[in-house]
Structures are given as structure tokens and as C-alpha cells.
Fold this protein.
Amino acid sequence: SRPQKVCLCPFLPVHPLKVSTCLYIIQHPAEESRVLRTVPLLAACLPPDKCKILVGRRFNEDRYPELATVCRNPNTLILYPGAEATNLEEIAVMSSSPSVMIIIDGTWSQAKDIFYKNSLFRLPKQVQLKPSISSQYVIRTQPTNTCLSTLECAAVALSIMEKNKTIQETILHPLQALCSFQLQHGAQIHHSKEHLLKNGLYDKPMPKNKRKLRRMELLVNNIKI
């Protein structure tokens, strides 16, 4: 749905990737209206039955019986970092059966809201990534230098679960093209908020809200938030 001269189709795989892992993308409604969102690129790389997108803020068993069944499946994982989360690479070593992975798509505050206000999402085993890559989604500001977009998280996670590094490279290809096109047409590279604060480059008024101000102080002092 982009103009032909910036079309991303040539950067997508010729055929959807063959994967055994099924992704459920839980998308905050605000992401639907973002022009440069990454989930459509992810979905274009995978078979429809391996990338299911559910949009909303609240998910209960009555309205989403299929999702409830998925959340109760012992092979289902949810990608959400925290003290309770296990490194995904450790899980992948022990598991040989096909898995389902839930990924929340939204800003960090939106993802946190969805995770904690939906009890279904605390049923699956919680996992997190220890990526060695920095985000290539440079046309959107991330909170820290280690934050990844939804597409990048999915690319890393699938490459681990499927034990196939080329999956990550294939899924990242259209994202790299998207950022390249945008930069060629006037977009600016967005450094993370952490980078801007540490280097005295943050040019917006500091928040008056004490909680937000405290989060910024933690970023500057290298404390995980």
C-alpha cells in the first residue's frame, strides 16, 4: 500500500517463511493508526496461520475463547521482560515441540498496561530476549539502546525457537529497507531517549510528573526500568 518507488515488496521473502512456531500479536489499538508500524511487515513474511493479530486493550475468556485456550497451553510462551522471565534461549534448548508465542505490540507503557490488566497473559511461561543487536528501527524513538521493535523481537525469537539464524535476517530485511527509504526522503535518525539524556541532547521540557521524571533519572543512571 505504499507508492511504487518506495514499495517494500521486493524486500519480502518470495514465499512465506516455513516455521513451526505460531505468533499471536496482541496489538494496542493505537498501533493500528501508525503509518510506520512494523507488524504488517512481520505478517507479510509469515504464513497467515503462523501470525495472528488481535487488536484491543482487554482480553477475557468469554470474548476470546481461542486465545484463552492458547494461554492455557503448556507450550505457549509470552515475550515480556521482567524478574519472572526466563531467557528464551534456555527454553529453546529444552523444547523440541512446536510452540506458540504471544508478543504485545505497543509502546512500553501500553504493553505494560495490557500485560498487567489481562490475567490471561500471566498464564503462559514468561520469557525475555538477551539480544546482541541494537534496534535498526532508527526512525522511531526507543526508550533505551537495547529496546527492539515488535518485528525485531519476533525475528530474534523465531530464529531462536526455530534454530535458524537466517529467519532473523529475512524478517529484518524489509525493516531495513523501510528505514532506508524514510531516511532518503527526509526522516531523521532517532536516538533512544537514554542516549539523548546521557549526552545532553534531550531538547524537550522535562516532565512535571514525578513518576515520569524518576524513570528518566533511572535511564541516565543505567538502572533497568
